[in-house]
Amino acid sequence: MKKKLALASILLLPFIFLLYMLFVVEVEDPIKYIYTITGATALMLLYITTIISMLKKAINLVKYRRMVGLFSFFYALLHMINFVVLDMELDAASVISETLKRPFIYLGTISFLLLVFMSITSTKKLFPKFYKYHKVIYISIILSSVHFVMAQKALSVEQWVYLSIMPIVLVFKLLQRTKIIHI
Ligand code: HEM
């Protein structure tokens, strides 16, 4: 229990950092800043969730996987709220026209809906029935990464490094499935 509480506190750090940057430092472009911190954290936590699954025979951290996944959903939810409430000012017509103008938003939305599905079906009661479908996490990772790239005009070195985690995770998973590696 103490370990789970410690983990939850660590997973809340990006959120606390975000509040600090918004209300104490007062960053220049808060909406853009919220997109970056919430989007990058949601994606990083998705990577960590899959890495926990892949390494479960070597290091068993499965009991923490649900919490990491739910925090990924939490940051994705903040990201989506930033779009609808702060960026589009709750104007349905702007949400629709902006989405039509910037197709990368479709990919983000599909990825977000997959996260909603996984979060709802991650309870003790529903997970045994739905765990097979939680493989959609890989689709969510791919869609979110493409969404991330498409949202940029140009990618910085840090962004390239960040994105390179995706093919590593996917290739590792493939090698595990085809039994080329046995971790
Ligand atoms: C309803 C779903 C979503 C919407 C409407 C949405 C919207 C957006 C928008 C508008 C941007 C561009 C921000 C800009 O102008 O620079 C963006 C960037 C981004 N999104 Fe999303 N997104 C969604 C889902 C997701 C999800 C599920 C993830 C990750 C798991 C994600 C990760 C990112 C990342 C990493 C960026 C780049 C942030 C940056 O500029 O540094 N998004 N998103």
Output the keywords:
mainly alpha; binds protoporphyrin IX containing FE; 183 residues; single chain
Specify the overall morphology: globular
What is the helical fraction, as a range of percent?
A: over 70%
Mean pLDDT, rounded to whole units? 95
Number of helical stretches of at least 4 residues: 8
Q: What ligand molecules are bound, each kind once?
A: protoporphyrin IX containing FE
Whole-number count of domains: 1
Q: Order of SSEs, N→C?
A: HHHHHHHH
- Low-confidence stretches are none
Biggest sheet statistics = none
Secondary-structure class: mainly alpha
Q: Rg to the nearest angstrom? A: 17 Å
- Structure summary, number of beta strands: 0
- What's the end-to-end separation, in Å? 28 Å
- Range of strand content: under 5%
